[in-house]
What does this fold into?
Amino acid sequence: MRLTSSAAGLFPIAPTPFTADGAIDHGSVETLIAAYLAAGATGVTVLGIMGEAPKLEPDEALDLTGRFIDGMPGLPVIVGVSAPGFAAMRSLARAVMDRGAAGVMIAPPPALRTDDQIVGYYAQAVEAVGADVPFVIQDYPLTLTVQMTPKVIRRIVEDNPSCAMLKHEDWPGLEKISTLRGFQAEGSMRPISILTGNGGLFLDFEMERGADGAMTGYAFPEMLADVVRLQAEGRRDEAHDLFDAHLPLLRYEQQQGVGLAVRKYVMMRRGFIASAAQRKPGAALSARAKAEVDYLLARLAAKDPRAAV
Amino acid sequence: MRLTSSAAGLFPIAPTPFTADGAIDHGSVETLIAAYLAAGATGVTVLGIMGEAPKLEPDEALDLTGRFIDGMPGLPVIVGVSAPGFAAMRSLARAVMDRGAAGVMIAPPPALRTDDQIVGYYAQAVEAVGADVPFVIQDYPLTLTVQMTPKVIRRIVEDNPSCAMLKHEDWPGLEKISTLRGFQAEGSMRPISILTGNGGLFLDFEMERGADGAMTGYAFPEMLADVVRLQAEGRRDEAHDLFDAHLPLLRYEQQQGVGLAVRKYVMMRRGFIASAAQRKPGAALSARAKAEVDYLLARLAAKDPRAAV
Amino acid sequence: MRLTSSAAGLFPIAPTPFTADGAIDHGSVETLIAAYLAAGATGVTVLGIMGEAPKLEPDEALDLTGRFIDGMPGLPVIVGVSAPGFAAMRSLARAVMDRGAAGVMIAPPPALRTDDQIVGYYAQAVEAVGADVPFVIQDYPLTLTVQMTPKVIRRIVEDNPSCAMLKHEDWPGLEKISTLRGFQAEGSMRPISILTGNGGLFLDFEMERGADGAMTGYAFPEMLADVVRLQAEGRRDEAHDLFDAHLPLLRYEQQQGVGLAVRKYVMMRRGFIASAAQRKPGAALSARAKAEVDYLLARLAAKDPRAAV
Amino acid sequence: MRLTSSAAGLFPIAPTPFTADGAIDHGSVETLIAAYLAAGATGVTVLGIMGEAPKLEPDEALDLTGRFIDGMPGLPVIVGVSAPGFAAMRSLARAVMDRGAAGVMIAPPPALRTDDQIVGYYAQAVEAVGADVPFVIQDYPLTLTVQMTPKVIRRIVEDNPSCAMLKHEDWPGLEKISTLRGFQAEGSMRPISILTGNGGLFLDFEMERGADGAMTGYAFPEMLADVVRLQAEGRRDEAHDLFDAHLPLLRYEQQQGVGLAVRKYVMMRRGFIASAAQRKPGAALSARAKAEVDYLLARLAAKDPRAAV
It folds into this structure.
């Protein structure tokens, strides 16, 4: 099971469930996987920015990855391996690939500025993890401060046959998807998979611009999968109706910093995980914020019964 | 007419209307003012980040300000005077105050980092514009990269009696409003007006947290004014219903970089201004993007007839 | 008198002399010009980052420029016109060129990241100031955070015939000079003038790498001119001997933030200007720092008698 | 052997010696230690920014640390444990302390902005590594972009009894040392050790301002130790004479990015290490740059015979 450039559908960004005392909650890993499968996930991404990966010991990270691989047989598991140094990136990449991962996701370090620096970095990263390991480019300037033009992405894709996917979360980014698909249409770039992040805030239109699916952590993966499917079936209005119903909550979740706390809280309310706890240090959700999320859930339930908790 | 700490309601951030050849379109300034007044604006802000202020000659900036002052008699006009140097800030501030402006808005320059640097900068700015000129703190870390804690804002408020208002657009920022209102409640900070920006993306809850109103440029100022009013009247569900109906378009408009082009396009479609043109250099809206906005407008019109164009 | 790509020698970055109460000290402008001419300056740059330009009113800026133009007849005066908006850049550029300036210097705004953004910015700037106005690229990533590769500089040079000079202050930057001169040697870039900044910290080797001279504000312009001349004459060891004698003081001056205060203090001690005052807000030099500078001056005077004050 | 707040003298920042094929060169670790001891080092810092730590596997990092501990008996070994996550920081800190390290050095992550964020981060870091582990604050805004005021440093010192030392490399930073020593003098901050970095560029005056010594990687540790000693003995002019003789080379080494390549090259020429190789990816020194360093060494040798190679 290797990640390929034809990957599509929904790859949830999985949070790491913890118990209140900070241990990984293995039972919740199982219920979370069950929820993803029920939602129609076609893969999963672990150890992403939202996965609290930097708080995990190496053994924990590898064990967690293995549980997802075992729990989602036949589906590709992508592992975030971004690291300040290539030694750590290589170790983790080799270990998870040996364990059965489908590919790795690599974000550029914030210090990169020029086009050549970015292209050079991915060349070095591929050398570090091995040219046989499929990888995903994470393009997330809002958080990472690294700006990749479509031409830079094309250079990375063309230089590295092991590049299978772009995780697109530039903002604004709709034109970027159109430009990249235009490169493919004119034959100047080979096809790659494009899954979109950014909390799903533009998923409705991203699918229309040519995205292959979603890779984000919104606490209703069913909605993400449904919008992807409806758009693929050409049912545009239905896709937007469903998306719009969720947008008030999705928008609330998408706040940087506090977003993970919101997601875990909703997932707990929905029974995906037993506790909303984050391993220290983690942002706490105020009572006021919880009440706001409850209000949003109640309003959503009137339109999408799956939100009833 | 001086800006005071009891300001509330809707202060739209006004764009600057241009003709296709880059001249200021004075007729559109009139129709824009009429639209704001019809929407229930209680003031207006000109020469803000969205107002293309850096593209205006000093004479143009002063003339434009005067037109808003004359066109909205009895209502406070706030003028953005942020500048890389205090000489330009002082010149503009004195000129617009002489012309009848109610106060000025000052954003911190991006290089500021430490708490003391930020507090010190506002002390210098007040010395530059004059301690008799009411001013607004613009707290917009997403764009300006300057992070002000609530305690820093309190220091600025307490140090400078001429501070009348906070334009709040931190993200996430709901807890910040609660914290500042808590300072007031405990008596450690004098009351100030808090109007919220960020494209209105969290206006529904910001009002519940204690904001006094909105200061942003969404192309449906009626919605902003209505949400502010409904929340003030305690009609929470109605406020959220209206807000949610607009959220898909509002979210689309809120994209950094392309947002102004979307706003001007919608305002043109609505008859607020004659042309969506930006003075060079400006971002163009692709045909694809225009079609997306049209689609959003059509969907919105089904819920809010004012969106029918 | 137009700036050309054959400019060479010493273009001091001129500070703006103020009296203790913040007025421009016109008498000190005269003595400063006399000092520059005596040092062998082949041009001068005003309204640069060190010139406290953002503290000047537009009339003051234009008047100051005129005084340098009149005081240095036959020598090119370059004017810094970097501004957050093109309107201000254009106004100032046209005004100073009408007054007799030889060209303008344009720094990229800090938000620029990708290669295309930088190239596009200079295209817009040239459109703003006019394609007939010779301009200088300021490449100063340490302060401006914008990183231009040699290839990006080449694109700007080739796209814009009015580009006459690079003010080089990348750090480290020796290889960059060699690469650019290599472009010229291979015929892929037309010749331009390269003057170096960075406080002069690497002037000794920059000249050997192919720089045409110095554009910086070290308080001993005589040394800068001498090193440029000695290297041009092939007297390498003498150039380094002189440079090394000045390095302890030059290094002390080159500190960001406090550097201008040091320079003005030394210039005052040397009689170039009457007062070390900066217009508010300005960094003050502590008594301890003054004593350190005095100590450095005394030590320098033992090797270079011109340092005796 | 625990690091205490009375640490003083010279703690070189050790590079990691590699063979040409990228393996750690254990023989060169021995010769490097011998050179440090001969130079009068009173401690050493390993796995710092210059130590290529991110390229080391965890086992290699621990083994390297152990070799320094064993090779410098009775002297404190400080270990850089800065990491993007607290899990990795804790693992490394506990492992090296168990192995006999004297303390750890912790740099703030670049995203920190407000005073409270910085203070909060150190509280969390102390909780992660254990309050029993002596730690060093690394204050290096030029590279890390985090700006700590003296008051913030005081808060960290006062909040955390395990804080033993400040590695000072703010720039400019002389006033900062004076301010911190002033805090101690007035009794508002307990005494800590202050060692200075920044490549040694201001060591001459830093000692006069109250620093306890140097912690940097200049390839002539003898000079650093001598300047520290001469200043402690009140032999100011001699200290400056020696410092000034080295300044041209020290300045050349201090360039960000290429600095490590220069240092390793000089150390190789001096016989401290067998090869100047960096583990990939590493900056190469051009032939031209090597010739420049050779020239600087030859010139230095005329003043300090230890530079003869």
